[in-house]
Amino acid sequence: SKEIGRNSFQLYKASMNARSLERLSMLSRFQHALEHDEFELYFQPLQCLASRRISSVECLLRWNDPKLGMISPAQFIPLAEELGLIIKLDQWVINKACEKMALWRRQGSDLRRIAINVSAQHLCQGELATTVSNALNKHGVDGRFVELELTESSFISNLHEAKSELHKLKSLGVAIALDDFGTGYSALSYLTKLPIDTLKIDASFVAKIPDEYGNSEIVAAIIAMAKALNLHVVAEGVEKAEQRQFLQKLGCNTIQGYMYCKPLSCDDWLRFYHAEKVT
Ligand code: C2E
Ligand code: CA
Ligand code: CA
Ligand code: CA
């Protein structure tokens, strides 16, 4: 039994080594990617249902590794969190998004808002408001042009800290959206305790309307609650005309999804934006 113990320890050690090597190479890849512009922002417009116009655009991060090709954020965001690099990555995104918004506005765009995803860790550990304030100042962007998308997990570890950070952001004019609503811990008290402007209903609910039993009622209830609390409500992952119709009937303000537009490279997004304005 002593032998087995030693063997399994050796095995454990070997896998630890492989794992730390993998982490090390990932770490240097990541830093290399940050320094060599291998990260890129894609843009997905949100559509206002009442006016049928673009109400804002969400930045979605892409990593184009020369060897591995396009890597999905669903893969590298959790990794960046684990490696302690997520705040650096968030800062890159926030800066890039402000730079783009400043450029577009200078070029005459009347786009009202750019939405940026922020990791849960950033809010409580990383002085998010300082990062945002610096980026706004650096690029000369008004905070009212920016919305930050956070998930409920951002508030769990320290509600008090989160609240004070969110209020700092609000004083810069920045709007706050609660992303993936309905999937997390869904402590509804967050909605009244924190200065939240927008609810984004998670795509998993939208995917099941209008057919699946009970699901449409949940979506209807979320929209009714959001309206009662004076929150703006966005439905994510809208792929079908019948979903859009259903959401519009319930008073949902805004939709986002493949039905309206996929995430686009910067050039394609600008073409889309100008084409929408003409029609
Ligand atoms: P999310 O914020 O919930 O973003 C929505 C995801 O749904 C995006 O995936 C988008 O491409 C995808 N999507 C949009 N419309 C549709 C649709 O109609 N149907 C379906 N099936 N999917 C749709 P993506 O770009 O792979 O991003 C995945 C997640 O990675 C994001 O989920 C977000 O949590 C995270 N993420 C992306 N960019 C960033 C970033 O810059 N910073 C941070 N911290 N997280 C990011
Ligand atoms: Ca989002
Ligand atoms: Ca989401
Ligand atoms: Ca998500």
TrEMBL record:
- Domain EAL, which positions? 23-277
Give TM segment ranges: none
Name of the featured protein: cyclic-guanylate-specific phosphodiesterase
Its organism's taxonomic lineage begins at: Bacteria, Pseudomonadati, Pseudomonadota, Gammaproteobacteria, Alteromonadales
Instruction: Report the portion of the entire protein shown.
Output: 559 to 837 of 838
